[in-house]
Amino acid sequence: MNRVAILAHEQVTLFELACAVEIFGLERPEYDDWYRCDVVSLSSGPFRTSADILISTRQVESLSDYDTLVIPSWPVTEEPVVDRVTDEVSQFDAEGKRILTFCSGAFLLGRLGLLDGRKATTHWLYTERFRQQFPQVDYVDNVLYVFDGRLGCSAGSAAGIDLGIEVIRQDYGYQRANQVARRLVMSPQRKGGQAQFVETPVIKSPSQFAGAIDWVLANLSQPISVDQMAEKACMSRRSFDRKFRAAYDCSANAWLIQIRLNRAKTLLESESCSIDKVAEQSGFDNATSMRYHFDKQLGISPKEYRVCFHRSELVMD
């Protein structure tokens, strides 16, 4: 069981704190195995958060009982870090445990020198300040998050959810990460530095497209044209194209390819059938076509994806 500590502190921002709790602290009784999460502090409370709201958390003397540490935010000013926080977070890192930062939380790791020589990011508002304070960090622009499997930094507040979904995928698999993402109504267009590994879930469709979307999902292994989708939506092709793009911020054809990729990734992770069979069941014309779209959109081949994420030792080429 993975025990998660969410580090609260004076002036912690509530939104980032709530995002961390939603990802790791919400009870999910439908899963036999899930995170055990505590919101903790290393100082006595209660204390004031953003908006001057007073909260009380579990005070701990040590973080040693936890496997993952989430830092929802941290002051961006160059004030010193209290000794207990320095000692505990540094020890946590020294033990090779996983640390995640949301938004300005990267400033704490930067001050402790834990990001030196590593890739990191934070909210774009703090980019120059971060670079000036931590020139030894390899700062990454224009990404939702960076994550190397042990240390992760999200760019902004909501991007912490994207990072959290990736962590769930690594811990529990693609299918469960997709289920959690769908319940959070995650946008299918959000992609980060680990785009090939992040679920792009199917969001609830606008009512005028509901019938067409349901039909596509029920017949995904079959050849499907945008003209057929327009017909199922009872629209002219021109009207369908215009309204679909306005609703989903992409063309219907691009959306269809993404849905096929989602199906293929699920099959590659959970099934041991051949690559050709995965392509067929996902609705691609052939394995070559599927490989092309994997490489173009995800930067990884179907076989490489399976090697990384298949949930069984039995893998067929």
From TrEMBL:
Keyword Disulfide bond attached: no
SUPFAM superfamilies: Class I glutamine amidotransferase-like (SSF52317), Homeodomain-like (SSF46689)
Organism superkingdom: Bacteria
Transmembrane annotation, as ranges: none
Record keywords: Transcription, Transcription regulation
InterPro entries in the record: Class_I_gatase-like (IPR029062), DJ-1/PfpI (IPR002818), Homeodomain-like_sf (IPR009057), HTH_AraC (IPR018060), INH-QAR (IPR052158)
Gene Ontology MF, one: DNA-binding transcription factor activity
Domain HTH araC/xylS-type: 210-308
Name the record gives this protein: Helix-turn-helix domain-containing protein
Naturally occurring in which organism (per UniProt): Motiliproteus coralliicola
Lineage: Bacteria, Pseudomonadati, Pseudomonadota, Gammaproteobacteria, Oceanospirillales
